[in-house]
Amino acid sequence: MYQFLLKAHVALVVLGFLSFLLRTWWGVTHSARLHNALALKAHKLVTLLMLVSALALCVVIAQYPVTDAWLTEKLVLLVAYVAFAMMAFKPEVPARRRYVLAGIGCALFATILFIAKSHTPLLLG
Length: 125
Prior knowledge:
With about 120 residues, the protein is mainly α.
């Protein structure tokens, strides 16, 4: 069960990040696809399934945010990543600012991956 959940979670994380990059590109190119209802619903569904798989993994490995520092850090960084992504997706954001917001989002994502792989918190450990 653990291996299945882990593989599903990793696949959903990759899909979610690719969706983030695609939606950022659509914003930079002023594509109408950024506001496509189906694309937004697909992005939200992938994000929801990713969070559900993360919760299931927490239960399976018996480690939880707040009690385990590395998971707490991942959760805080995930909230920051979502906030920067939401700012990058706003239609009125100029391309230059969108690049900066997307860059910060990518850096946060990379940090989340490092923490996930190492199970070592960077700030709370």
